[in-house]
Amino acid sequence: MSNAGLTIFDGEVLRSIDLKLPELEHTVTGAQLLEISESKVSESLSGLSLPPHLKEAAISRVSSGDEVNFRRTDFNSQQASEKLGVFVSAVADALRDTPIVVSILDGSTLKLFLEDEDDFAMLAENLFTDLDEEDKGKLCKSEIRKALLHMGVEMGVPPLSEFPILDDIIKKHDADGDEELGQAQFAELLQPVLQGIADVLHEKPITIVQNVEIFTGSRLRKILADEKTLKCLVEKMISEESKGKDSQGRADLIKSLIIKNGKELGLPPLSSENESVALLYDNIFSQLNNREKGSADASTEEGFMDAVKDVLRKFEELLETTPVYSAITNL
């Protein structure tokens, strides 16, 4: 699964890997077989070196937990092919449970923003608004770092820990300190900083590998299919959320319930930094607002439960047709 310098590996490509080994004149040791297996898997994953957790999972399974003896053992051709299959299956299963996303940052995404004045103006405005939490209309120069953090890998900015040259770029453009800037000044300062990052990445691209969780609505589907579990879950959520909030509108209560209990429901965590997730929530919550304006059905307990189910079904339907992913950790 790939898109514009970003590739998600969920193990599917490994299910059809060729498990044949070159003709062996002699036996092969377990140590040699591990090297061959890792090389074959890496080749199928576009040359990606196996992250440690995947490599460890595969070695543990193929060696039955005894790596030392496995490395010393000799295998004939048939045995080696079987062990190769076990190694590949272990990696594929691990990727199915926790896929990885590989992003190649070469400056092209940043250049797209910089080349389109309207896109850049909107980006700078959104960043300024997000960072101006007190609505002062002013931000310190030092907030440029936070703006870059907000943009993140999805917008072409590498994690600061992986891009130490950023300090030099910030110093070069005097983008640090307590001097306060208005929105237009902030945008003027942000532009050359992004250009500097794009130029460096163009000369020396960075590959970022992250664990991701893909949300397809499967967990939510199981919850919706079990009326008893769903009712107990919603009643528990309502009890915890409605304490001291009697004046809260039904639509707002449903939104709050879903956002705070998203993990238990199998929903992706809401984040303004993940555009696809933010759009998913905006789409469904806007429909919820329209429903409350045009109907009073949710005023009863039964009606409220039906409203919650309706919202969850919409999440399930959209996630089934358009799964979203959420990054967990950098590898």
From TrEMBL:
Annotated InterPro entries: EF-hand-dom_pair
Protein name from the UniProt record: EF-hand domain-containing protein
Organism listed in the record: Eutrema salsugineum (Saltwater cress)
